[in-house]
Write a structure and sequence with these properties.
The chain has one domain. The chain is 63% helix and 3% strand. It is built from 5 helices and 2 strands, in the order ββααααα. It is mainly α. The termini are far apart. α1 runs parallel beside α4 and α3 runs antiparallel to α4. A hairpin with a 2-residue loop joins β1 and β2. Keywords: Membrane, Transmembrane, Transmembrane helix.
């Protein structure tokens, strides 16, 4: 079989993505990226609800001048940007076969997910 490279597809191989041919990839990293990113996307629906409710933080007069509330609001708003960075750079480093960097970039959305889960656990059990 020919090993001539045609873009991302090698003649004689079934892979259409770089880094996913035969023994070239790490199956554990691939599974981690897919599962975690599906969970992060599910949290996007939760984020929309939280973002809508968080506008009520500015309900009382003068609260728009509260620096802490503004920081919290922008922190909540930043989730899609962090998610997009994690998705892009996670797969970028996976394609470059830098498994550790791919996993570390993919952990960035936990900056938003863990506090939310902590808040839910605190509200329901304490």
């Amino acid at each position: 079989m020919s090993s001539m490279r045609l873009g991302w597809i090698r003649a004689g191989e079934m892979s259409i993505l770089p880094g996913l041919t035969g023994m070239d990839s790490s199956p554990k990293t691939l599974a981690f990226l897919i599962v975690s990113q599906v969970l992060y996307l599910l949290f996007s629906a939760v984020w929309l609800v939280v973002l809508g409710i968080s506008a009520m933080m500015f309900d009382s007069p003068g609260s728009e001048n509260n620096i802490g509330l503004n920081i919290l609001y922008y922190y909540i708003q930043a989730y899609p940007g962090g998610l997009l960075l994690a998705l892009c750079f996670g797969w970028y480093f996976f394609a470059k076969k830098k498994w550790r960097a791919a996993v570390l970039w993919n952990l960035i959305p936990l900056i938003w997910v863990i506090p939310f889960l902590g808040m839910i656990l605190y509200a329901n059990f304490l």
